[in-house]
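Exercise 7.
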Amino acid sequence: MSAGGDDGAKKTKPHYHGHRDRLRERFRKGGADALPDYELLELVLFRALPRQDTKPLAKALHEKFGSFADVISADVERLKDVNGVGERVIDELKLVHAAALRLTQTQIVNRTALGSWSELMAYCSAAMARETKEQFRIIFLDRKNRIIADEVQQKGTVDHTPVYPREVIKRALELSSTAIILAHNHPSGDPTPSRADIDMTKKIIEAADKLGITVHDHVIIGRDGNASLKQLGLI
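Solution. The predicted structure, written as tokens, is:
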């Protein structure tokens, strides 16, 4: 064998290894602000696809959904439509999404809801604005208006969620909650309250009032913003 045989037998690292190292270094030095959305997605995909160039998939996901936030919160079935997305990729994306929501939720629990309204709305937006189906969420408060629980009570279709005032009040009593904030999303993106939204809210207020439970507000979450029925003078 020739002396050059050993050199020829050496394995060269795939081209993307250097790229990964450079991305990690930029992230360490500058944080998320140092990277555009698709490169942040690349970092997330490194663990799911350790032996693959993740840039093409990151760009494909970003192109389809529009932003980092839209990708990690996208519906699983829509993610599967992207070529190259399998269970491991979905697991990583959903783990990041869950971690982001848990962090935001931790920042509001046990705080006074009315004194941290902007943080509460930011959490609701992160949790609901990109959902493709309606969901009805209740934020339960104690006597000092501190948040003691946050629960999705119902999930519905693209334009309707069944809500039962008796179930809302029953759950408030179970948690010894003396006040609640209602929230639901409009998948259309437009947070404008419907007649049904207003009527349903008034029924809950009427039922709650009989048992000394205050309904502070009903907030509708949309991709184009949020709407407060109280601020609009509708309740």
